[in-house]
Amino acid sequence: MNKAAFHDLYARYAPDVYRFALWLSGSPAEADDLTAETFVRAWAGRGKIRTETVKAYLFAIARNLFLQQQRQQKRQVALTQAVGQTQSGPHGLVEDRLALAEVLALLQDLPESERSALVLRVQHELPYEEIARVLGISLSLAKVKVHRARLKLAHVRTAWEASET
C-alpha cells in the first residue's frame, strides 16, 4: 500500500474508527489514541485483510487494542466528556451532552463483548456476519450478544423512566 492509498484509507475510515473507539472507551482522548494506533497497525501490517471489509478489519484492530489496553490497566476508564449535536441553544446543548453522557455511562456497564457487538450493529450498521468476524465469535453468539445488550439497555431505560414519574 502506498502513501496515497493509505491517506485515502485513513480519510475514509478514521471517523468511523474514532466513533467505535469512543463508544468502547467512553473517553475522547482514549478514542484518539486507539484510532491513531489502529491505523499504525494497519499500515505496519500491510498483509492480507482477514475480513470481507476494510472497515471490519479496522474495527477488529481497534477492539483488540482496546482489550489489550484494558488488560494492562485492569480498570475501566470513567467518562470525562462527550460531544453531542445540539437541539437549540445552550439548553439543548446541555441536554444533549447529558443524554449522551448517560448513554455512554450505561454502555460502560455492559460487558465489553456485548457493548462492542451493539455498537457495531447500531452505530456502524454492520451485518451480524461481520460482527461475528470482528469479535471472533459465531454468528449465533453475535446475535445473542446484540440482543442481550439491547435488553439490558431497555431494562435500564424502563427503570429510569419509571423513576422520573
List the helices and strands and how they pair.
Blueprint: H1 3-25, H2 28-45, H3 54-73, H4 89-109, H5 112-122, H6 128-135, H7 139-164
Helix pairs in contact: 1-2, 1-3, 2-3, 3-6, 5-6, 5-7, 6-7
Write structural notes for this entry.
There is one protein chain. The protein is mainly alpha-helical and 165 residues long. It is built from seven helices and no strands. The chain has helices spanning 3-25, 28-45, 54-73, 89-109, 112-122, 128-135, 139-164. Helix 1 packs antiparallel against helix 2 (28-45) and helix 3 crosses helix 6. The radius of gyration is 17 Å and the shape is globular. It starts with a helix and ends with a helix.
**Overall 3D form:** globular
Number of helices: 7
- Describe the biggest sheet? none
- The counted number of beta strands is 0
**What proportion of the residues is helical, as a percent range?**
over 70%
Give the mean pLDDT.
81
Percentage beta strand: under 5%
Which stretches of 5+ consecutive residues score pLDDT under 50?
75-86
Series of secondary-structure elements, N-terminal to C-terminal: HHHHHHH
End-to-end Cα distance: 57 Å
Radius of gyration: 17 Å
Structural class given helices, strands, pairing?
A: mainly alpha
